[in-house]
């Protein structure tokens, strides 16, 4: 089963979005696959760093999505997070993302986005998130990393 994470990072009326490194550079929230041995929360933090260049503080879980895609089940966990809006953002394009920017939430609908599910994730952020502990003991607190067996 594939597991992916997405993080809606807010500061006041703004949301942190990334421009993806794919043709057209559409906007989206930091998101990506969970790597082997990585907790869901650690994956969310890593994706925020790689794609936006920010250290995020996860504040809760906004939602879970389960679908059948390709070869099997796919699960996405959407986190809520905060980051310092004064911190420098990623500005050098690479394979992870093109750039990042704080965008007024009211202006997001004017942007070219990767998928309309971005709007659904932003709507989830209008309600209080569930606590990280809803994910169980691997809620992103300090956990030992598992190593792949040889």
Mean pLDDT across every amino acid position: 89
Tally the helices: 2
Element string (H = helix, E = strand): EEEEHEEEH
| Domain unit count | 1
Instruction: Just name the CATH architecture.
Output: Alpha-Beta Complex
Helix content percent band: 10-25%
Major sheet summary line: 7 strands, mixed
Report the count of strand segments.
7
Oligomer: single chain
Radius of gyration: 15 Å
Structural class: alpha+beta
Termini separation:
21 Å
**Regarding CATH, which class?**
Alpha Beta
Q: What is the molecular shape?
A: globular
Low-confidence runs: 142-150
User: What amount of the residues lies in strands?
Assistant: 25-35%
CATH superfamily: Nucleoside Triphosphate Pyrophosphohydrolase
- Could you say what the CATH topology is called? Nucleoside Triphosphate Pyrophosphohydrolase
Structural overview:
With 150 residues, the protein is an alpha+beta fold. It has one domain: Nucleoside Triphosphate Pyrophosphohydrolase (Alpha-Beta Complex). The chain is built from two helices and seven strands. It has helices at 40-52, 117-124, and strands spanning 2-11, 14-19, 27-28, 31-33, 57-69, 72-82, 99-104. Strands 1, 2, 3, 4, 5, 6 and 7 form a seven-stranded mixed beta sheet that branches. A hairpin with a 2-residue loop joins strand 1 and strand 2 (14-19). Residues 142-150 have low confidence and may be disordered.
């Amino acid at each position: 089963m594939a597991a992916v994470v997405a993080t809606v990072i807010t500061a006041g009326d703004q949301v942190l979005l990334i421009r993806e490194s794919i043709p057209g550079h559409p906007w989206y929230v930091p998101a990506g696959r969970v790597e082997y041995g990585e907790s869901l929360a650690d994956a969310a933090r890593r994706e925020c760093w790689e794609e936006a260049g920010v250290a995020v503080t996860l504040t809760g879980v906004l939602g879970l999505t389960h679908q059948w895609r390709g070869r099997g089940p796919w699960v996405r966990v959407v986190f809520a997070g905060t980051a310092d809006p004064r911190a420098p953002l990623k500005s050098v394009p690479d394979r992870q993302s093109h750039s990042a920017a704080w965008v007024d939430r009211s202006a997001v609908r004017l942007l070219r986005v990767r998928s309309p599910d971005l709007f659904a994730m932003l709507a989830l952020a209008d309600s209080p998130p569930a606590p990280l502990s809803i994910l169980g003991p691997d809620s992103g607190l300090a956990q030992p990393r598992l190593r792949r067996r040889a």
